[in-house]
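[Automated response] Your request has been received and processed.

Submitted sequence:
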Amino acid sequence: MGITAVKIKIMPSSPDVNLEEIKEKAKEKIEKAGGKNSQFEEEAIAFGLKAIITLFAWPEEQEIEPLEEKLKEIENVNSVQVIDMRRAFG
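Generated structure:
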């Protein structure tokens, strides 16, 4: 089976939230679920609010929805959205 590259946007509940804590918890959940090589970026939205964009390798045969639900359970996370998913070559 192949590997997919997944990009997910994690929106915090407010601009005052500690993004580093969310990143740490998200990385734990991604790796526990089977994801590898997770990387994080911050994307400015508006009024000081920043989204967390994570990119990681994911097994192609595995569903992504259970991971989305686990990421939504992180404290101070408002929403989680898969913004890109494609087969990785390499």
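Summary generated for your ticket: The domain at 3-88 is CATH 3.30.70.60 (Alpha-Beta Plaits). Helices lie at 19-33, 65-72.
If you did not submit this request, please reply to this message.
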